[in-house]
Design brief:
The chain is of the alpha+beta class. Helix content is 29%, strand content 31%. Strands 1, 2, 3, 4, 5, 6, 7, 8, 9 and 10 form a ten-stranded mixed beta sheet that branches. Helix 1 runs antiparallel to helix 2 and helix 4 crosses helix 6.
């Protein structure tokens, strides 16, 4: 079995007939006037065709999205519910082995529906906070810590512009509006950790009694803090991903 993923970009303007241009890389339909730019990340799962070497021709994915998904999203602009629109898109895509569709409404906000759970929408939104930390294991010697953590063991610490992204499974749209997730994330995580020295200013990572503030432990702590705050009928936290840089991230649970 393989999982093939294709990203289809397109732009839409309310009340304007989409223009099918040739530049699929930047977006097809292309932008006309003041519109919205979206991406649909389509994943299909199955066996590779032994003759063609394909699971599915990516041109079929592009054609299905532009024939079925783009008109549905265009019709919903300004008035439709994004989660329900995505459910309808997934239900209407004529693609063999369709596994999931993730709709990137912005670089920071996305919705995803998997065919195995077609009534559940996975809501993701990115947030950020700035914090200093020092990686140090009390059970190791000073030399062992220096060898293991290198510059990250600097006694004065160092900082990161962290990003974190909760993934919330929503079965009822009213259970977790985006504004509510933003409020929770700000109160529970951002206000707790932003512009703090994690080793000195937070109970979770306090030197001598808290966890070593690695990206792995930060992801775990964020999940454990957000889980109870998010939980309610129709909404449940699935995971939290934390980035300490554009090259290093951790998702908990993984």
């Amino acid at each position: 079995m393989v999982l093939l993923t294709r990203t289809v970009r397109f732009s839409l303007t309310p009340g304007v007939v989409p223009d099918r241009g040739p530049n699929g890389y930047a977006g097809n339909p292309a932008m006309i006037g003041l519109g919205a730019h979206y991406e649909l990340v389509v994943s299909c799962r199955g066996e590779i065709d032994p003759v063609k070497g394909y699971l599915i021709n990516i041109k079929e994915i592009d054609a299905a999205v532009r024939a079925h998904a783009v008109p549905r999203i265009h019709a919903a602009l300004g008035a439709g519910d994004a989660g329900e629109t995505l459910r309808e898109v997934v239900g209407g895509l004529p693609l063999a082995g369709l596994h999931s569709v993730r709709w990137k409404l912005s670089p920071y906000y996305s919705l995803e529906v998997k065919t195995e759970a077609p009534r559940t929408v996975l809501l993701r939104q990115k947030f950020d906070f700035c914090a200093a930390h020092r990686l140090h294991a009390p059970s190791l010697s000073a030399e062992e810590n220096r060898r293991l953590y290198g510059k990250c063991n600097n006694p004065g610490g160092h900082g990161h512009n962290y990003q974190f992204e909760p993934c919330v499974a929503v079965t009822e749209a009213a259970a977790m509006p985006l504004a509510e997730l933003e409020r929770i994330a700000d109160e529970v995580v951002v206000q707790r950790f932003d512009h703090k020295n994690l080793n000195a200013d937070t109970a979770e990572f306090l030197d001598g009694s808290g966890l070593n503030p690695s990206v792995e432990n930060i992801a775990r702590v964020c999940f454990e803090l957000l889980g109870p705050a998010v939980a309610r009928p129709g909404a449940k936290l699935v995971s939290v991903t934390v980035w300490e840089s554009d090259r290093t991230s951790c998702t908990y649970p993984g």
